[in-house]
User: Which sequence fits this backbone?
């Protein structure tokens, strides 16, 4: 028996967009709608992208507002992620009294 073609409804489109925005994996979205991954990608590509983009925009807005409000963690994250600032560490090894290190290498003959 041939399977009838999938017909997306406005409600299904809304559900896919919301689920994608919440970060649900495709297999779980498919289970909600009752379709396979191939059908999901074929009929709901825009909803998958828009849902994720809307959620990311909302999170970015919240982070930005927190940073503007003085939230130290948000400020640090923003400078690292958006301004490419980075913490750097410099390790310097010195010898006795701050002088150069001395290295002695010996070889042992093996028989």
Assistant:
């Amino acid at each position: 028996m041939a399977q009838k073609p999938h017909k997306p409804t406005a409600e299904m489109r809304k559900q896919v967009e919301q689920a994608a925005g919440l970060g649900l994996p495709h297999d779980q979205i498919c289970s909600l709608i009752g379709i396979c991954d191939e059908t999901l990608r074929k009929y709901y590509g825009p909803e998958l992208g828009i849902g994720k983009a809307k959620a990311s925009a909302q999170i970015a807005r919240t982070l930005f507002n927190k940073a503007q409000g003085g939230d130290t963690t948000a400020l640090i994250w923003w400078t690292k992620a958006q301004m490419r600032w980075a913490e750097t560490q410099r390790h310097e090894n010195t010898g006795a009294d701050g002088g150069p290190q001395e290295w002695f290498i010996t070889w042992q003959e093996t028989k």
